[in-house]
Amino acid sequence: MNRISPFRRGATGAGWAAVGLLMLQLVALPARAQTTPTETTKVTFVQEWPVADGFWIPWTLGKAKGFYTQEGIDLNIVAPPTVADTMKFLGTGRADVAFTTVMDIIFAKEQGAPVIAIGRYGLGNNWGIFTQHGHPISLHELKGKKIGTYNDAWTKAQLTLMLKSAGLTPDDVTMVAASDDTVPLLLQNRVDATTGITNAEGTEIAVTTGKKPEFLPATAHGVPDTPIFMFAGNQQWLAKHPDLAKAFLRATAKSINYAIAHPDEATAAFVAQYGKSYDAAFVQQQWRDTMDVLGRTDVDRLKLEDRSWSALLDAVSALGIVKQPLKPDQYYTNEYLPH
């Protein structure tokens, strides 16, 4: 899953005005609770992308408000050098926990890495195919068309499954690969449709054009409804520090719940930490779109399900992406979730 350009674009004009407003809001934040442990333990948390993005808002806010400190954790948020390094950091023990994708976990397990999913970030799969507002398209109409995409295996797998549901194959379309952002391809009319997720590419199209894009959800066309993003842990670290792992997920769950309940405050905390890394208007909208993906209730928000893993593993093995899939419960555990 690639990240897109607004995350790495400095805010200008109206964007900086939004930053100013959010900074004022941050100044007004209540002081963090004083009832914190006298000693904390460092927990290194590697991210899914080399540059800060709006998906990090909950733990950025939680760290600022002391939620992790209250659990005895000195949270060290680390950005990897490249997207390929997240699971390398986790698997080799240079990180204790990670924010990553479901397919990164599956690929890492296939290579024997000691990693395992410990929680989900999102209730389902919000990937699909976008076209510009007022120009809906059906899957059958994609034949002979150009589609903006990324060069990662799961994007190709999802697109293959979608096309298969309409009796098409990837050979029936022309895939135009983007290095980091498919949206410009669509807005510049270089492709007829583009792939992405509702709270990244979908948000960018809406913010850039001022109009909501048309969307064909993958889950309505043969793709498993499996959450894309996950929290994962190094299994050796988890075995040695189970209480710390539980504390990390308690603080993370609290941070997500608080960020959803206080979106402006949450975005303000992100601005304070990463204000030069993104377009402010984009991230404000992105967090609201992400809230929809996370769900409005905290009941079982992080809980992983055997059903969705089984469906995903069946799909990727049928396409030959994973040669010898393991049993679902070897990819994830709910042992460390808060109760």
Walk me through the topology.
Elements: H1 14-27, E1 41-46, H2 57-65, H3 67-70, E2 73-78, H4 86-91, E3 97-101, H5 102-110, E4 115-121, E5 127-131, E6 146-149, H6 153-165, E7 174-177, H7 183-187, E8 193-197, H8 201-209, E9 214-217, E10 229-234, H9 235-240, H10 242-261, H11 263-274, H12 280-294, H13 306-318
Parallel strand pairs: 1-2, 1-3, 6-7, 6-8
Antiparallel strand pairs: 3-10, 4-10, 5-8, 5-9
Number of strands: 10
Number of helices: 13
Radius of gyration: 20 Å
Strand content: 15-25%
Largest sheet: number of strands, sense, barrel closure: 5 strands, mixed
Helix content: 25-40%
Keywords for this entry:
339 residues, alpha/beta, five-stranded mixed sheet, 13 helices, 10 strands, 40% helix, globular
Overview of the structural elements:
With 339 residues, the chain is of the alpha/beta class. Helix content is 40%, strand content 15%. It is built from 13 helices and ten strands. It has a five-stranded mixed β-sheet, sandwiched between helices. A five-stranded mixed β-sheet has the order 7-6-8-5-9, with helices on both faces. Helix 2 packs across helix 10 (242-261) and helix 2 packs across helix 11 (263-274).
Describe the structure in brief.
By secondary structure, the protein is α/β, with parallel strands linked by helices. It has 13 helices and ten strands. The longest helix has 20 residues, at 242-261.
